[in-house]
């Protein structure tokens, strides 16, 4: 099993929120060909999104194996690849612009602006 599969398939524990009965409004999304249900608030509220998708989550919540798995998707560099990847991660979570903006900011905007009622899924 992929090291992140459980994060995408295990049910979330629902607390007091949403309609007051512990239910949340969920949105179905396609992420890399995998269908997942994510809380609507996570997708639409930038403050919540960036509280979850953050450097502190990277450092304090994800396990070493989860971080290693995700680092496989980063560019590999001919020299000091681990150090270069660490700098890239810091730049990503600090909001620095890459060629056409910050990928996390772009993703959050796409989630927020996608008319999910019309399309049914976000890609």
Outline of this structure?
The chain is mainly α and 123 residues long.
Describe the structure.
It is found in: Nucleus. Its main location: nucleus. One of its GO terms (cellular component) is Ino80 complex. This is Nuclear factor related to kappaB binding protein. It comes from Equus caballus (Horse). With 123 residues, the chain is mostly helical. It has one domain (5-119). Helices cover 48% and strands 10% of the residues. The protein has eight helices and two strands. A two-stranded antiparallel sheet has the order 1-2. A hairpin with a 2-residue loop joins strand 1 (26-31) and strand 2 (34-39). The two termini are 23 Å apart. Residues 115-123 have low confidence and may be disordered.
Helix and strand topology:
Layout: H1 5-9, E1 26-31, E2 34-39, H2 40-44, H3 46-52, H4 55-60, H5 64-71, H6 81-93, H7 103-113, H8 116-119
Antiparallel strand pairs: 1-2
Which structural class do you get from the secondary structure elements?
mainly alpha
How many structural domains?
A: 1
- Report the strand count: 2
Name the helix and strand elements from N-terminus to C-terminus, one letter apiece: HEEHHHHHHH
Strand order of the largest sheet: 1-2
Mean model confidence by pLDDT:
80
How far is the N terminus from the C terminus? 23 Å
Q: How is the main sheet built?
A: 2 strands, antiparallel
- Quaternary status: single chain
Total DSSP helices: 8
Strand content: 5-15%
Rg on CA atoms, Å: 16 Å
